Amino acid sequence: MLPRFSLSWRGPLLALVAGLASSAALADTLSVEGAHVRAVPPVSTTTAAFMQLHNAGDADRALVAASTPAARVAELHNHVDVDGVMQMRQVEMIPVPSGEGAQLAPGGYHLMLIDLVEPLHEGDEVALSLTFDDGQTLEVAAPVRRIETMGHGMSEEMPEGKAEGMSHAGH
Ligand SMILES: [Cu+2]
Hints:
Blueprint: H1 15-26, E1 30-38, E2 46-55, E3 61-67, E4 71-82, E5 85-90, E6 94-96, E7 102-104, E8 110-116, E9 125-132, E10 137-145, H2 162-168
Parallel strand pairs: 1-10
Antiparallel strand pairs: 1-2, 2-7, 2-8, 3-6, 3-9, 4-5, 4-8, 9-10
The protein binds copper (II) ion (CU).
């Protein structure tokens, strides 16, 4: 399905041209707000990045990949409630619906930064590269911040949270 766009529609012969034009136009419709990376103790080689994704376009999009020079692996993750226990799962994509966008926040969707190249310090900026299902990429600078995990009874002395710490044993 082609997204709607502001060119006049002249029929199927223009479908390809229209598709190209719309992907160019969409470059302005996705944006990122409040990106940040959770500060972790120097011994930790894993952390998470959070942000709000906005989609002002007419087409639903999805975040399909992420990368950063700060970590050797960046995965898309979600938390799911399995019999009352929050578990992290890697997901293929994070939906970014038109108008709604997506919230990457503790306890929900997040980017998992695995095998950090060097310890991150509060105030550092981590460059994140986000790739969407239409091929476009957004570059974001995400400051490293302390985050108090909400809803798990976790203090900031255990910044990864119990559920994350447990499922990271498998990485
Ligand atoms: Cu995770």
